Amino acid sequence: MKDADHRNLSWDEWDEMRSPRPKVTDFDVVVEKALSRRGFLSGVLAFGSGAAVMGTGLLSGTSAEAQSATMRRFGFTPIDIQTDLSVHVPEGYSWNVLTSWGEPLFSDTPEFDHATGGTAESQARAVGENTDGMELFNVGGREVIAVNHEYANPETNLPLTTGEVLSAEDALKLKNAQGVAVFEVARGDNGYAVVKDSPFNRRITHDTPMRLEGPAAGHDLLKTSADPEGRTVLGTLNNCGAGKTPWGTYLTCEENFNGYFGSLEEGADVPAEFGRYGILSGPSRYAYEKFDARFDVTKEPNEPNRFGYIVEIDPADPESTPIKRTALGRFKHENAACTLTPDGRVVVYMGDDERGEFLYKFVSNGVYQAGGDTSGLLNEGTLYVAKFYEEGRGEWLALTEDATGMSAAEIAIFTRQAASKLGATTMDRPEWVAVNPHACQAYCALTNNKNRGIKPNAGGDATPAEGPNPREANEYGQIVRWFPENEDHAAIDFVWDLYVMAGNPDVHSDAYAGSPNVTSGNMFNSPDGMMFDSRGLLWIQTDGDDSNEGDFAGQGNNQMLVGDPVTGEIARFLTGPNGSEVTGLTWSSDKRTMFVGIQHPGGSFPSQTGLPRSSIVAVWRNDGAMIG
Ligand code: FEO
Ligand code: CA
Ligand code: CA
Ligand code: CA
Fold it and tell me: Which residues in 389-451 belong to E strands, given as ranges?
């Protein structure tokens, strides 16, 4: 991009600017009429006839009695909002920085240089930018973290060119600042630190060789001049949320992969199927197409079909080849929440984070057995998409060849189109899914959707304000949860409700005030990252408007809260630096330390001067008790 204003936009802002969704259509008029007939947002009606909302009858959360009840349940006194450039945790807790963008993983790599932000070469052996989903693995008693590096902030990462990608070196540095980092951590006198030169340390970048497996592998649509077999690919793009398999591998999720592709020729035609995914010709965000022809859609039109998958990485084997699991579908993958059915099949819940896109699950054909062969478990199974009905029931629709009229490979490559054919429910940007380890239920953060009730999705599917997405022009978001029939995550039928509807009770008195478990004392917007801890508490991280003004007045910086799935109670635990998103969460093996991701702080962080650096912070209780 030439325009300096565009260099540090969020992905969502940038994508929306480059690939605007359809303008007002006949559909909009129909929706508008329907909404006015319903008296939309006039209190109870807005929640739909049967869409139960969790949290009625809760304590207000502001009285002294409520405060002490919260402290007993969660083990801390909730904190106030903040608007500064630091991290805050409750009294009795402490935090420090585990690592930051540019920190070398190997002792032969130069220390981070605030003047240059490092080189392409140093970046390939250092922690990446924009930390996101992460998991900690216990490998024979050693603790190994795998963490995503979602995207780049060129103005920060390329300070010498103030964000312009002027050379192959600049493009390579951005490629090396993204992907995944794997590194060992160990506890010392000052808490956890990265173990430099550990044999587990590894960087996976936009150029790391990986294998394609599952129904799409070897299909003509995946073949390129560099890979006539359609089975090997370089790199993983826009690694957002993550997941952990029962057999101890890491799942990294390719989200906004579309923005990495472009063409030198402006206005060049692209295949019709690209439209649904927002893949365009013309200049791309990081100008890769100028220096690496595979990112030019006029030269390698199949290359974009090789991204948008979930990639499995073995953190215990730094020599292993990452595998793109095409059976889990191709879309803007947020995270991958794994669980097992009573008979041992693997279920992976997955959100497609775009306005009006869908919620999915994969159920394996094979059964997981500890110590058994797990290499093919994520290659064969059934992909389902969620359909929610108003009255609090829902079902999973199987994306089969019969139902879609598409081949298994086509379903795996053009998953959005397959799901549209079945009439799946258009959602308010499904971000992370989390599965409760103590009850058969799963939660999905629906972060926000300004187009709800206003515009169809990119496939033309209607987005009426109803069911689990009940608010028009939804700027706050909500968390939906579902209870599978027969306590079996493979079941077709489920019952759902809304765990929370975020909102602002100081500004609104209608449905935009939020559900009853949202108060002046705990309010937030745009839930995104979500993880259950081992005790069955739900941690909620936000990626929203942190202006602390207007509709967001009193909500402060992005934050991390904890929710009780039984009572619906929600309490604020941590606030991030202004401008940052709080995303990514994992725990030490003994659950006495929590690792939290701070993505793209808005100013100098963690040091008081110099470049803003995405970081992972460690949080612990001063008395050494477990916190997860
Ligand atoms: Fe990368 Fe949807 O968050
Ligand atoms: Ca996210
Ligand atoms: Ca988000
Ligand atoms: Ca983000």
Answer: 393-398, 430-435, 442-446
Residues 40-89: tens digit of each pLDDT: 223 323 343 344 565 443 434 446 676 676 667 799 999 999 999 999 99
Confidence grade of residue 518 (pLDDT, cut at 50, 70, 90): very high
Bridge partners of residue 254, in order along the sequence: 239
Q: Which fold has domain 3-621?
A: Neuraminidase (2.120.10)
Domain segments of the chain as ranges: 3-621
Q: Sign of torsion, CA 68 70 74 77?
A: negative
Ligand 1 neighbour 334 (Cβ under 6 A): yes
Residue 543 Cα to ligand 3 midpoint, Å, equals 5
Which residues, including other chains, have CB under 8 Å from residue 30's CB and lie 6 or more apart? none
Residue 494: strand, helix, or coil: strand
Distances from the Cα of 243 to the Cα of 109, 251, 348, angstroms: 29, 5, 9
Adjacency order of strands within the sheet including 538-542: 527-532, 538-542, 559-563, 570-575
Eight-state DSSP code of residue 449: B
Record the tokens describing residue 26, joined without a space.
């006949």
- Work out which ligand 1 atom sits closest to the CA atom of 334: 2
Q: What is the pTM of this model?
A: 0.93
Q: Is 28 in the pocket of ligand 1 (CB under 6 A)?
A: no
